[in-house]
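Suppose a colleague, Dr. K., hands you the sequence of a protein chain of 496 amino acids and asks what its three-dimensional shape might be. Before reaching for any lab equipment, you can write down a predicted structure in token form. Begin with the sequence itself:
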Amino acid sequence: MSEEQVGAEATAEDGGRAPSSDSLPLLPEWQAAADYPVRALGTHLSAAASAIADIVQVPIAVAAQSVLAAAALIVQDFADVLLPIGPNGMAKPLSLFFVTLAESGDRKSATDAFACKAIKEHEEKALNNYKNSLDVWVRSRESWKIEKNIIRTNRDIDAATRIEMLRTLGPEPAKPIEPVLIPNDLTFEGLVNAWNKLPRSIGLFTTEGGQFIGGYGMKGDSRINTAAGLSLFWDGGTYKRIRASDGLHVLKERRLSLHLMVQPQISARFLNDEILINQGFFSRMLIAAPKSIIGSRFHKITQENSARSLSAYTDRLSNLLQQATTINVRPDVDASRRKLMMTQEAKSLWIELSDWVELQSTRNGEFFDVKDVAAKAAEQAARIAGVLTLVSDHNASHIAEEEMYFASELVVWYVNEARRLRDTHPVNPVLTQAKALLDWIAARPESKAEFVEILQFGPARTRTKREAEAALAQLVEHHLVSEIARRPRTFRVVAS
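The predicted structure, expressed as tokens, is then:
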């Protein structure tokens, strides 16, 4: 018997299986993320991230993203970092933008709750005080209006006297700012319209990043405006908008840190949006996508040292918030920030990192495919080093060598993570649905399933005829399943 006959007979006996060598990869080969360099977060933040990872049972990278974002939000209004560029240096904000990819059920909310506990408690106390301040303002404003009306209607004084009295009276009492540091839900337009009523330094943190990505502000042409506006705030620039409805709107000296926690399936198209990549939005992001640990989080007794570390971290952030003027500084007040400089040793490390990343961004370099991200690596390192420095000592005037070394290690990890994700992150959501269906069929008896079973019991995203047909078409095209019967329609895994 010939080899062709043997192959044909084997295929027939196997109910339609084709040789597995004919199969094509459905998704890019997924590379495992490198271990997050948690020790590089410094004493306070590394202990906190490890404690949250232990207590909540989440990947260390998820916990690290959350604590570093919380720290950046608190200290970004303390100072700017001075980059060693030009004769007088170049001041840049300490603001940081994070994106964390984590599955549904990966305990994103619990992680964020622990990481931001001090901020939310401080915000709650400030909101209670705000109610009292608002009552005082209402009375003061009413008194001011009465005094102004008396001056304006007084017929016994001349114009010059009236002008002087109005000058002495002064402007209308300013309404207290609303002490909200972390708005729960917002659009970019909403942020612009409301920011004159909020502290000048805030954070956009959400564990439901899909709502932000899928919202109006990130659809169609609006996403360009949103990305450009957020990028401008990351840069520390002045935002100027002119509308027929409300005229000129100016926002200057604002500080914004961002942390979007997003499910990988939702983020696929977002992270591969060429317009957003070319606009430079993602080059400002510090992205992490650790492997989920769902299925290994069995109940355990929390280690006492974890509880102590988490308590110490919360106390540290609370103390920093007590020192911060952020929640009390009106956004229209030009309260200058001090400039955080680098020691000579730290400056040498920063220059070494900048030059090395530049070299690796050339065509033959390891960062060529993510040269947009690499271009901002040195600045990101300076920002992170500034955050680590002020968490340790909010009165610090210089970034030391150790903080710059740690920040450089973190930034190299982030650039490599960006490269990994850009190489392997799936662009087409249909392929991820097809992979889920393939795994589901492979786990069934004899690795086969009827079409009606797929619609009834298959993965949630393939329980409609349209979605199921699209996923099966991909699997058949890639020679991963074959249709072994027409009535009832039945499919069997060829290769997984």
